[in-house]
Write a structure and sequence with these properties.
heterodimer; A: 324 residues; alpha/beta; Rossmann fold; four-stranded antiparallel β-sheet; three-stranded parallel β-sheet; 42% helix; globular; B: 287 residues; mainly alpha; NADH-quinone oxidoreductase subunit H (chain B); membrane (chain B); NADH_UbQ_OxRdtase_su1/FPO (chain B); NAD (chain B); transmembrane (chain B)
Chain lengths: 324, 287
């Protein structure tokens, strides 16, 4: 048994899986997140840093294709597993020469990281700059399952955007689980905002709410922490401001009006109310409308802001009727 | 050279503490995982540039460690330790940029952009904070600055400069609230496409930079090796560990700062504040 095999055995006991979810994969994703926490493993933020891929739910044809492209470009030793197979990860038999092969690209690059062709156009300051066409999603951590935003970027500023629903349908996991839905949204939002501690607390609360454990006190503590964070408010105020007329133009629910900071505040209030057993806000979210406002909201924002904007609307495409 | 080795050990300790706080596997397991990961690259990547960048980061940290004193002794006997430290830290800019640029990947490139913007925000306040301490001690030698704080630590009577230094220490190691260049929102940013072993080297360099930045805070603002009972080198070590633990702890406790907002605060608030601090120090010292 050589050194390499020993290293591999040592490392295999704490893999770092990359988790991708289909529109109907929310339940699976929550199980995987809880499973990772219980094993003290951490998820990868990109498929490039790991060889273990977890696919949640049942991807439709288009999403399955995107996942295949990402999978073919992941580094070995690779394993592609279902959500219930965390304990039986069996990497493919990558031979030792694979370890030494110096970088011949295997398969295509993932759709999210290939720079592709650059052309040029005037930017907002009238400078002539390269335009990069970059898709955000659908295989991206802490991103709404099944969504893709096709961006034209100059530097890291979005010049134009188009929203595409890659995967949809299956019925929402969240029906009747309003508090848990918003806690999940908050957890992913906080991860996108780079606040790991608060995100972890929100995720634990979400799982406890779903299991019927009491969370009221811990939620209030988390709510205080988030509301008191001047840094978070500073970074989210005035970002992704949706004008009131969007309610009529796009048919989005009224809670979306305002900026990212306001929407997060709204979620916290909503979670509090739902935990008290009272006032579940009427109707569902018209998630298709949430997608339709994204292009105009992210145009002019930088990439970091665009991620926050999408996370603050958090469309659930499982609630959208699948299209042919 | 013992000082450099000690800082290397501290970097590993920082990675271990971070793993405990994150609830994840320790640094050795993660290192093994990265070592056995197959090499793969993006099409048309500039592998040479990316690799130079990945290696430059730990190299810069190690070279900066040469001038860090424990007690009254540093590995390299130089009278311009402050300048040397500052120069090595800026090598980190090139490292992150090369890694981000070399990958031929949009998110990695954006990570590189982010670090350059971050440099524009933190570097001037950082340099003024360094100069303030040097001014008070009439020396650019970190050992002399540490020894000049017999009565009162610089951190106590120049708190603005100390605070700015701590902020810039986080920023130079693109750590915690300044982690946007490697942000999760852009799938790992500049480091996105680094092959496993290169990623290991790069991330090790980041911990090294964090350890060195913590260790330099001690002679600059925390009285160097000064303290009762214990020998000077041990005091330096204890104080370094305290600063390092604080920086590691801060990582998960704060949201990430975006430079489109922070640059303004850095130039409108931090630079005037630290200049004012320098003026006060200059007046006191000349008297």
């Amino acid at each position: 048994m050589g050194l390499r095999e020993r290293l591999r055995g040592f490392a295999a006991r704490s893999p770092r899986p990359f988790v991708v979810s289909a529109a109907d994969g929310t339940g699976d994703r929550l199980a995987v997140e809880a499973g990772l926490r219980a094993r003290r493993w951490r998820p990868a933020v990109s498929p490039a840093e790991t060889g273990v891929l977890v696919v949640c739910g049942h991807p439709g044809e288009a999403l399955a294709e995107a996942i295949d492209v990402v999978w073919s470009a992941m580094p070995g030793p690779r394993a592609r597993i279902r959500p219930d197979e965390l304990d039986g990860i069996e990497p493919d038999g990558l031979e030792s020469d694979g370890l030494e092969s110096d970088g011949a690209p295997r398969g295509a690059a993932s759709p999210s990281d290939d720079v592709g062709m650059a052309d040029r156009a005037d930017d907002r300051d009238g400078l002539r700059l390269d335009v990069l066409h970059v898709p955000l999603g659908p295989v991206l951590a802490d991103w709404p399952a099944g969504l893709r935003l096709d961006l034209a970027l100059q530097g890291d500023v979005v010049q134009s955007a188009e929203a595409v629903i890659v995967d949809a349908g299956g019925g929402s996991f969240w029906a009747g689980r309003e508090a848990a839905r918003r806690l999940d949204g908050a957890a992913r939002f906080l991860r996108v905002a780079g606040w790991a501690d608060a995100a972890r607390r929100a995720a634990v609360l979400r799982d406890d709410v779903l299991d019927g454990r009491p969370v009221r006190d811990r939620f209030e503590a988390l709510e205080r922490t988030v509301r008191r964070s001047r840094l978070l408010r500073w970074m989210t105020r005035g970002v992704g401001n949706l004008a009131p007329d969007a309610v009529e133009r796009h048919g989005v629910p009224a809670w979306c009006v305002g900026d990212v900071a306001g929407r997060l505040d709204g979620w916290l209030r909503e979670i509090g109310a739902a935990l008290d057993g009272g006032g579940t806000p009427g109707g569902h979210d018209r998630d298709e409308a949430l997608v339709s406002v994204l292009p105009e909201l992210v145009t002019g924002a930088d990439l970091g802001q665009a991620r926050l904007i999408v996370a603050s609307l958090d469309p659930d495409l499982a609630a959208v009727t699948a299209r042919a | 050279m013992l000082e450099v080795v000690v800082l290397g050990v501290l970097a590993v300790a920082a990675a271990s503490l971070d793993a405990v706080l994150a609830g994840g596997p320790g640094p050795f397991r993660e290192a093994a995982r990265l070592l056995v990961l197959e090499r793969r690259t993006t099409p048309q990547a500039d592998r040479l540039l990316a690799r130079i960048g990945a290696i430059a980061l730990p190299l810069a940290a190690a070279l900066a460690a040469l001038v860090v004193p424990f007690g009254g002794h540093a590995a390299l006997d130089t009278r311009v330790g402050v300048v040397w430290f500052n120069a090595m830290e800026v090598v980190g800019w090139a490292a992150v940029w090369l890694v981000g640029w070399g990958a031929n990947s949009a998110f990695a490139l954006v990570g590189g952009y982010r670090f350059i913007a971050q440099g524009l925000a933190y570097e001037l306040p950082h340099m003024f904070a360094l100069i303030t301490a040097a001014l008070a001690a009439h020396s650019l030698d970190l050992r002399a600055i540490g020894a000049a704080q017999g009565g009162l630590w610089f951190g106590v009577w120049m708190p603005v400069a100390f605070a700015v230094y701590l902020v810039s220490a986080l920023a130079m190691a693109f750590w915690g609230p300044f982690g946007a260049p490697l942000g999760a929102d852009i799938a790992g940013g500049a480091a996105l496409e680094l092959p496993g072993p290169d990623r290991l080297v790069f991330l090790a360099g980041r911990y090294g930079l964090l350890a060195v930045a913590s260790a330099v805070a001690v002679p600059l603002f925390l009285g160097g090796g000064g303290g009762p009972v214990l020998p000077a080198w041990l005091w330096s070590l204890v104080k370094t560990c305290a600063v390092l633990a604080l920086l590691v702890w801060a990582r998960r406790r704060l949201p990430v700062l975006r430079m489109d907002r922070f640059v303004q605060a850095a130039w409108v608030v931090l630079i005037p504040a630290v200049l004012l601090q320098m003026l006060v120090v200059a007046v006191v010292v000349v008297d």
